[in-house]
Design goal:
With 323 residues, the chain is an alpha/beta fold. The protein folds into two domains: 215 residues, Rossmann fold, CATH 3.40.50.1100; 92 residues, Rossmann fold. It has 13 helices and ten strands. Helix 1 packs across helix 3, helix 8 crosses helix 10 and helix 11 packs across helix 12. The longest helix is centred in the middle third of the chain and has 17 residues. The protein is globular. The relative contact order is 0.17.
Amino acid sequence: MSANPLLPALSEIEAAAQVVYREFQATPQYRWALLSQRLGTDCWVKHENHTPVGAFKIRGGLTYFHQLSQHGALPQRVISATRGNHGQSIGWAARAYGVQCSIVVPLGNSPEKNAAMRALGVILIEHGSDFQESREHAIGLAAQSGAHMVPSFHPDLLKGVSTYWWEFFKAVPQLDVVYVPIGQGSGACSAIAAKLALGHQAKIVGVVSAHATTYADSLAAGRIVEAPVSTELADGMACRVADQAALSILAPQLDHIVKVSDAEVAQAMRSIYTDTHNAAEGAGAASFAAALQERGQLKGRCVGTVISGANVDAAVLAKVLQA
């Protein structure tokens, strides 16, 4: 039994995996020698940058739409909000199910993420100064048009996202501690779901941007605490208002939270590229950035990290690598 009714059970995660695997196979995980050398201990990386949209989110979109289909509730049109990877996930799944998809992004959003969404057939709407404003606009548009609003956090999304942690924990049962980036919370909550479903003993450490601290502040206060967003690099973690349902899962299960600065994220992006020749976007490198910050405490432990996404604009990556 799961500790929280919102979390999928093992049978639900296994069923979700079969839905995901219609589109792509399990992503790899490797013990990278140079990254392990940097941490001074075994470091495994789960490569969610190797999905068809370059990020883990696609898993959730597929299971969300599958559930709608199973219940005979597929809408004609969906709408959602994103900084990029969630939007690609919903765009991919909507296309697969023949559903029209509109996505709201903030003004000045990543040009390459925007282009990727449009290539999936998404109608892109640019509105708002940050994700929260985009989200509120999307909710308003859904109410006006009758479109189905796809949230950023939902149990049917968790079913799909949990499959990547289920793969990771099964492939590397010796993991002692894993570092999970937190945007709206689906990744970290899914790590918890997979851990509980498999009875795994790894400690789960949440990672937030030091420039977007709503989850850290809310967990510390025991209630939602809105926090300003100023990160320029970790757009996938640039959330201003935490989700209450996610907090209810995270609070009793996270070992602790690590805050990583943009400078630490940039260093992690450089390390990952140098040591593995994989590109990681800011949020995608946050997991390794947190492990680096805590490397003094990790000797002799088997550490799990994730490249949760690779969708960084070429100009941004070039600037980071040249620093």
